[in-house]
Each structure stands twice: as C-alpha cells, then as structure tokens.
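Sanity check record (used in CI):
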Amino acid sequence: MSKTDLDIKLKTIPESAGVYQYLDKEGTIIYVGKAKNLKKRVSSYFTKNHDSGKTRVLVKRIADIKFIVVETETDALLLENNLIKKHKPRYNVLLKDDKSYPWICIKKERFPRVFPTRRLIKDGSEYFGPYTSMKTVHTLLDLIKGLYQLRTCNYDLAEDKIEDGKYKVCLEYHLGNCQGPCEGYQTEDDYQENIKAIREIIKGNFKDSLGQFKQQMKIYAEKMLFEDAQRIKEKIEVLENYQAKSTIINPRISNVDVFSIVSDESFGYVNFLQISYGSIIRSHTLEIKKKLDETDKELLELAIVEIRERFNSKSKEIYVPFKVNIGEQIKVTVPQLGDKKHILDLSLRNAKYYRMERFKQIKITDPDRHANRIMAQMKADLRLSEEPRHIECFDNSNIQGTNPVAACVVFKNGKPSKKDYRHFNIKTVEGPDDFASMEEVVYRRYKRLLEEEQPLPQLIIIDGGKGQLSSALKSLDVLGLRGKIAIIGIAKRLEELFYPNDPIPLYLDKKSETLKIIQQLRNEAHRFGIEHHRNRRSKNALNSALDTIPGIGEKTIVELLKSFKSTKRIANAKLDELEAVVGVSRAAKIYNHYHKE
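Expected output for UvrABC system protein C:
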C-alpha cells in the first residue's frame, strides 16, 4: 500500500471503539492495539513526534492498517488480548507464561470424587482453579481428606448396581477414609452435604464447615460419645489452623481480584491475588516483556484481561494502584487506607520480590540481559542520550596536603574493568588544590585517549560537587569534548548529582540500581586513589630515612631493601650482614649512622 493509500485509510477510520492491526509490506501483523476512538488513536501514531526509537521504527514499517469495530471497550480488551496471543506481533508486549496449571475437579457422578487434574474435560464436572502450584492443590486436598470421608475408587455407583450388591467395600473403608457408599453404608444426600461443604472450603469459606463440626461435637458430647467428640474437635483445630494461615484481611472482603505492577525499562511484573472470605485463594505473578514505550497503565490493563481469562475469574470487583479502563461490568477500586490498602500493598510486595528473584536468576543465567537492563535503566534515570556502556570516575587524594594523587576507575557494562584503571601523580599543582588537580588529570586522561585514538566513555563521573565538575569541564572545553561526553558530579554528603549549567541537583531513589552503580564507582575510585596515596607516602617514608645517610645512593638503597625488606631490619642489622650486601665501606657508613651512641 502506497503512502497515499495509507493517508486515505487514515481519513476513513471510524471514531468507534475497536481493535486496530498494523501490517508490514509482507502482510505480517506487526502490532495490535485497542482504542475507545480508533480514528484518534491510530492517527496519533502518524502525527506525533515519538520519543521512543522503537515506536518510530514501528511507524516506518507500517504498510497497511486493518481495524475491527466492537460494541464496548470490554470487547476491545478481550479481542486485543486474543489477537496478541494468536499472532504474537513483533512490537506487542510478550506475556511470558504458557505453562498448564492444576485444577481441583469435583467429578459429575453419583458420589462425586474430588481429585487434582491438569486436563479440563467438558463433561459437566466442576473445576476449581487453576492453581499456581501443585503444592497448593495437595495442601488443600489433604485438608479436605482429613475433614471428610470421600471415595477414591472409580466404580460406577449407580443405584441399581449398589442394590444388586455388585461392589464390596475396600481397604479405604476399613481404614476409615471412606464410609462405603458402594455397599449403601452412606446415603447420597449425606455424601452430597460433604461435597457442598468442600465446595465452600475450596472457595475459602470455612464458616459453614466450622459451624457444622461444632454442632456435631456438641451432639456427641451430650450423648457421652467423647471419643467421637474428640475426633470432631481435632478436625475443627485442623480447619481453624488452615484458616488462620490463609486469612490475612477482613473476612468480609470476598470475591475480589487484586492487581499491582512494578516495571523497569524492559519488563513489567504484574502480581495477582484472588481474595475469597478474607483468604488468599490464588496468587500469581506475570512477567511482561515490553516492546515499545508502554506505560504501566497499558501493561496493567492487558495483564488484568489475560490473568482473569486464564484463571477463569468471575470477581465483580478489582483493587488496583491506579485507575484502569477494563469495561463497565467490573468495579475498579483504588484503595487509600485500611484493609483494602493492606492487601494491595501485599500484592505490590509480592511483585517486587518476584522481580528481585528474576534479577538474581538472570544475573546468573543471562548476564547480557542483566547488563542491558541496567544500562537502559541508567540511561533513563540519568537523562542520557545513549546507554553508558563505558563509564569513568575520577577522585583526588591528598591527605594533609602531601603527595597529591588522583585515580580514574573504569566500568564497562556496569562492571569494573580493572585493567583500564589509572593512577595520576599531580605534576602541575602546588599544594592541596582539588579543583586544579581535577582539571589536570581530566585533561591528561582524555588528551592521551585522543592521541592514541582510544574509545571515549559515554559518561564521566566526578567525585565532588559543582567546583570539581566545573574544573573538569574546563579541560573538556580545551580538548573540544564538551557536549560529546556526558559528565556529572556526585556530592558525598547527600548523594546529589550535579549536571553542567544546572544549579538544581538530581536526587535518585536511595534503592535505585543506578545510584548503587554510581556509588560503587565513587567508592572504587576512592579506594584505588587512597591505595596509591598510601604507597607513595610509604615509599617516601622508607626512602627518607636512608636518603639522609651521606654516601648512600639510590642503587644501594634498592639493594638493601631487596635484601632486608624494611628500614627497621636495616637499622638492626649487624655490620657483617651489611658488608655481605653492600661492601665494607658503605656498610660502615650505614652501621655508624644507626649506632652513633
């Protein structure tokens, strides 16, 4: 389709709710989106100047547009979700979760069995779930088995077959795990009462079962059947213990879905909690790979539709951290305080823990992806024009004005590159002048890199405030590098980041990974500089004592230190030991210097 044809199509798109599809010149769907107003949304791609490079590339590749008009925004959400899953367009977010989940099945039959399964068969049976782990399913089924006696056999317990005596009770009956419906020892009505109670327990409602058991225990106690009463009491304790572990909020909060999101430059993590009678009956976190510059709102809306569909949720209300548009049928609540806010905070904490665990795993299994994420995050946080793959940090060291030195440490892809570290002895500055020292070392460092045609960093960090940053900028000006390399200063006290020509410092979140890397660079530069400073002072201190001996030169001092390792051992050495190293004449001078008394 030519540009003219595309322009005509843009003018004829209806102003209705619907789903639009972008196709490339091969006819492949490369993006699917939804909109309240198709005309406005689609036109915005071609009239706006997009900040995201990925969005600009997408727009260049659009050769054709298709759209589907629907009745409501809810329909648009569902259709968009289905089309994304079906076509997996290149520029749509990737919902990274395609595994099957376990369900609890209550089989449609006389005297229904209750068991776990991963297969949903449309035979009228009831399926509860899906659950995010088989461990949860087994825990719930163990609870049910401990409370109610259900059959596990797969016999067809038709009424006529039981009356004809076709079946005999098995070992499960003798062990007390089944009441023997196969021989008519338990009525269907009695069995169905148990199934009714089990349904409520699976939904998170323990109230009915607890009430029934307490009533039963009271009856047994009145009839002096204390062993039976004790058995029921143990069941009550099991149920109350399970309830206590699963109830975290007000039991009146029921049939609610809770969603929260945390995200970075590349991924979003959406946590889902399903609440029934104050209990969390389901928890799941979905990882979403961003393809364009999607907002948290867009990601959350897509994830809510996907998760509710996947987990077959029928909840009429959702709790979210901010307003989302997911149709009129579902009530959207943004909690501000109380139990509702507490459960939303819990969901957010789960999302953060999941994200942290994923980072740890990725750092081990896919270090490149970890580095890419860190670089993208630093670019955004520090407002840089490119990712800071190569960073250099400078620090001055002069203690009490002696032996002034400076250090330059280098990080590549967020990690120290120790082979590229450099020390500088200050040559042109007299006395302790941090500003002049910084100007000298920055000039020397980048003059040399330019002369040797070595790659320049994308970011320079100066350990110091506005003064040191201004000094470093003078050197970049002289070398013609100002504006070609990003440069910032970090003040020690409040971790303020200073930019050239900007009097207002930038403050990063104290827990942000960008600030942690900057701090690591600053600390590494400080350590490296102090180490060199100590070495210089030590060398000067060692040499000064020997330099004062008349007739003893540098070569003699080196020989002595190689042999005795320290000035203290030289001072305490016997005359014959010194003679063996430097000869009779020089040995006498050294020995007499240390033994004047």
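The chain has a mean pLDDT of 79. If this sentence no longer matches the regenerated tokens, the check is flagged for review.
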